[in-house]
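Predict structure. Chain length: 427.
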Amino acid sequence: MVNAYGAFMGFYDEHLLTKSSDLQLSLVGATESFLLLLPSIFAGRLLDARRHYYLGFTGFLLLFLGYFVLSFTSAQGLKDQGNYGFVWLTSGLMAGLGMTCFFTYSSHNVIQWFPCKKYIAAGITSTGAGAGGIIYPLAFKFLISRFGFPIGVRIMSSVVAGTTLIAFVLGTPCVDVPRRNLGRVFQISTWIDKQAIKSKPYTLYVIAVALVYGGFYSVAFHVTEWAEVKGFGTEDIIAGGTGERPGNSGFRTFWFLTIMNGTSIIGRLASAVVATRWNNPIIVHAATCFLAALLAFFFWPFAPNNVAAIAFCSIFGVLGGSMLSLPASGVAYLIPDERQSHVGQWTGMMWSGVSIFALVGPLIAAALKRKLGMDAIGYWTGATMVLTSALFTWAIYLKRKEDVTIEGKEMKSGDQTPSSTESGAVV
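Prediction complete.
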């Protein structure tokens, strides 16, 4: 649903909340991203303790209620009838908290079920986000134009409830992985693993992933507006929210977001295959971030026509799918073998650390856009992606350095064992 917020934001900006600033509208989506990630530190540890049913039911309830109550906050959904505070409370706060219950839940389970093919398994699972990014924007546009905002959002809330219920029923953990008892709830060590904090590659990796989220969603939230401002497409006008269908002239701006989300499926699958072949998802992450930086620097400000804009959304979607699907695999790559039962905790800690920049990044981009214009978002995203690529590369270097050190100690220990046995025999 976070990937579909661009469609909601366009409707709010053009129709329901025209008096709200771009910064305020960005805050709703940024809140979703922030709360999607922040509580993951608790969700990951609960998954290690096999409390998955508590998480699943809570997520189902919050997501359904968030979007269902949203449908009652804007009267008949006519122009400027929206209440910004209620929109933020329902689709930002409630839905965001519901999303976090399923976010770590999905990748954690498949990584444990398929340890030998964990990168491919995580990549296939993440394609659901890309599919949702296609289906939900299209469903939103269709339902709002056919039934109006209140009824359309109620139908969407029912669809969300149905899909989360399936995940709740089928998402069982692997019994072969040892269960870690939860311990004392109010003890910091229950939720935070000090070994993760001491790991330099892990720390760098968390910072890099944080920059990925701050940069990518800045583009995703504004791509439909960018297409309209640059003249690459026309915005649908849903007349009074009464259900009148829009005209058929021109390329619709919401298709740019749909294309980006659709091609992300290719990136999610391709990156998983390459990461498995190379046995290193972080090097794939570094490469895709660097390519995304080049696209943001040159295509976002300088795309000359509609064809170039579609090409930008298609390629950036592929790269974005790769960037957003690899973080959990990166943690699985970095975590030492003796701490594999802590993978949920390490993954949750990462997402909680990323959450701050996921909140602040789109807000910074919105402020830059207001001061410097739409092109500033491309420069902001490009700069964050260049820095991200460098941090990923640094993390790979430190990880390999650690591995060499460990291998050296093991070889030294192996060489000393026979000598000590021989000396004992002589004595």
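Summary: Residues 239-249, 419-427 have pLDDT under 50 and may be disordered.
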